[in-house]
Design a protein that fits this description.
Layout: H1 2-10, H2 13-26, H3 35-57, H4 62-90, H5 95-106, H6 110-122, H7 131-138, H8 141-152, H9 157-161, H10 163-172, H11 174-201, H12 205-224, H13 227-255, H14 260-271, H15 277-285, H16 291-325
Length: 327
């Protein structure tokens, strides 16, 4: 059963597009997707999941959301703290670099979320629509990580005064604006109005996601060329920590009453690492942190690991927790 799920993931269009992108970069192909087009793809994907999430949220009962919200808040607090502690005390990184690692691994990858949603649907266990809101909330793991870093460097006066600016920057971030804004729109428009948008924002979704993953594969392959800068510890960190966080996320989702698909998606998001919003915040708050450490690990190691190997593992864990703890 587990092997069948892994094989299905490896031959899915999403995974194959990512692998094709990695191959194209490895052979130095002139294949490229223009940056303006990529930005359009990203806007489309984020707004689409926001709209669909808002649509589902409008039909959800409040009682079914409260427990999942509590589990998410717990993950927002604990994941950055755990990532910081592992990087600081096992990896022997200084505070700035440990904070950078914690910010990326305490936050989320929207593309991993999209891939997990698609994977859950392909297994016949779609996740609850309101998970879009939980994913948006998990972006606040960035702030938790930065606070931990500032607390650890209490003597640096200028850093504490920048906290308000970092909060504002996170709230203005593209991912958060599109997810929350799309959810608000989807919640407000109603089913009849949403049907008019469905051919564009739903039917075209997976096709655009395939093209986006093609570019992500090329980008990840380029980052892998910086392998020697990351070091053996970060290679282990970029694979082992996602497995631990994925296990914790799927367990938290199961105990909060989510379906197998919902617990799986929450676990996959917990296991992911940001490579868009969080690096910008880290550069602003801790410019001395080395991007070749945290960004190469996130995009070059953890992202492809999750996409190719992690998703089937997290799905298996969600199914296991459901059989053990499910009602």
């Amino acid at each position: 059963m587990a092997s069948d799920i892994i094989v299905q993931n490896l031959v899915s269009p999403i995974t194959l597009a990512f692998v094709l992108g990695m191959v194209a970069a490895a052979i130095r192909s002139d294949l490229e997707i223009p940056e303006p087009v990529l930005k359009i793809f990203a806007i489309f994907l984020l707004l689409s999941i926001g709209l669909q999430g808002g649509r589902e949220l409008a039909e959800a009962e409040l009682g079914s959301i409260v427990a999942a919200l509590g589990a998410t808040l717990l993950l927002v607090l604990l994941l950055p703290l755990a990532a910081f502690g592992i990087a600081r005390f096992f990896g022997r990184f200084d505070v700035a670099n440990a904070t950078g690692i914690a910010a990326l691994y305490g936050s989320v990858s929207s593309v991993t979320f999209l891939a997990a949603q698609n994977f859950a649907s392909s297994q016949g266990t779609p996740a609850e629509g309101f998970l879009t809101g939980l994913v948006a909330l998990m972006e606040w793991g960035i702030l938790v990580a930065l606070f931990i870093g500032r607390f650890s460097m209490a003597g640096a006066d200028g850093r504490t005064r920048a906290l308000g600016a970092i909060v504002a920057e996170t709230l203005r971030g593209r991912g958060l604006v599109l997810l929350v804004g799309g959810m608000t729109m989807g919640y407000a428009v109603g089913e009849s109005h949403f049907e008019k948008l469905e051919p564009f924002f739903v039917d075209l979704f997976r096709g655009v996601l395939v093209l986006f993953l093609l570019e992500m594969g090329m980008t990840a392959a380029r980052r892998l060329r910086e392998f020697t800068k990351v070091g053996p510890f970060m290679v282990a960190f970029g694979t082992v920590v996602p497995l631990l966080f994925g296990a914790a996320g799927t367990l938290a989702g199961t105990l909060a009453g989510l379906s197998v698909g919902g617990a799986f998606v929450l676990g996959a998001v917990a296991a992911s690492a940001s490579y868009i919003d969080a690096p910008a915040a880290v550069r602003s708050a801790f410019p001395e942190a080395n991007p070749s450490i945290y960004l190469t690990s996130s995009l070059g190691i953890t992202f492809p690991f999750n996409l190719i190997i992690g998703l089937p593992v997290y799905y298996g864990l969600a199914a296991l927790w459901s059989s053990v703890f499910g009602g």
